Amino acid sequence: MSPSRAGRRPRSFERRAPLYDLQLPLERRPLAAAAALVGSLAGLRVLDLASGTGALAEALLTTGGAPHELVVVDRSPAMLRRARGRLAERVATPPLRIELGDALGLGYRTERFDLVTIGYLLHLLGPPDAAAVLDEARRVLRPGGRLATVVHSPPPTPAGRLYGRIWRALTDVPAPAAGQRTPADARPIVERAGFEVRAERHVAAGYWSQVLVARRP
């Protein structure tokens, strides 16, 4: 999933768009886990931030139920073109909106959405930028609305810690490529942003990932 300006690498994701989906086999099980935790989208207003090529949105749509509205946002036009191709056959055009946008400054009214999803973005950002993205997500969520996030993060087990050490060793270079930031635990920053975590799952397949579903009080 490509970051907003907070990631400082939009051009990198533009270049990677044609080949980005080659890594989707590493993401499918975590994305499916997120969709299962979220459940049906029936009647919901859904915002998918930093959607990339639309893989998380596609996974969400497999849970059944037609959303009232599905808005897919990314800062990369090339990523959004691929997202449109992936999602157009699954969602009728009126409820599906593909929009160029920045996760740090969304042009949507406060409390508009029932569900905001963020896949594979937060671990790419430094803590201040990740917090700012979550603050904006909280702003556009209605009270009682939900946030679902997926980050590259191993579980706090011996195997998970070994995985993290290996990943850090492999990506410890002066200018890491987009998508190679150190895996991180998203729960503390999600809670600091004012969300109540309701479900958490670690998926040790492909990119070892942490899936969180939280509620805006």
How is this fold's topology laid out?
Blueprint (H helix, E strand, L loop, with lengths): L9 H11 L3 H15 L6 E5 L5 H7 L7 E6 L2 H11 L8 E5 L12 E7 L7 H14 E12 L5 H13 L16 H6 L3 E8 L5 E7 L2
Parallel strand pairs: 1-2, 1-4, 2-3, 4-5
Antiparallel strand pairs: 5-7, 6-7
Helix pairs in contact: 1-4, 2-3
Short characterization:
This protein is an alpha/beta fold and 217 residues long. Helix content is 35%, strand content 23%. It has one domain (5-215): Vaccinia Virus protein VP39 (Rossmann fold).
Question: What can you see in these coordinates?
Answer:
The chain is an alpha/beta fold. The protein has one domain (5-215): Rossmann fold (3-Layer(aba) Sandwich), CATH 3.40.50.150. It has helices at residues 10-20, 24-38, 55-61, 77-87, 127-140, 158-170, 187-192, and strands at residues 45-49, 69-74, 96-100, 113-119, 141-152, 196-203, 209-215. It has a 7-stranded mixed sheet. Strand 2, helix 4 and strand 3 form a beta-alpha-beta unit. Helix 1 packs parallel to helix 4 (77-87) and helix 2 (24-38) crosses helix 3 (55-61). The longest helix is centred in the N-terminal third of the chain and has 15 residues, at 24-38. Mean pLDDT is 85; it is low at 1-9 and 173-180.
Tags for this model:
217 residues; 7-stranded mixed beta sheet; globular; disordered N terminus
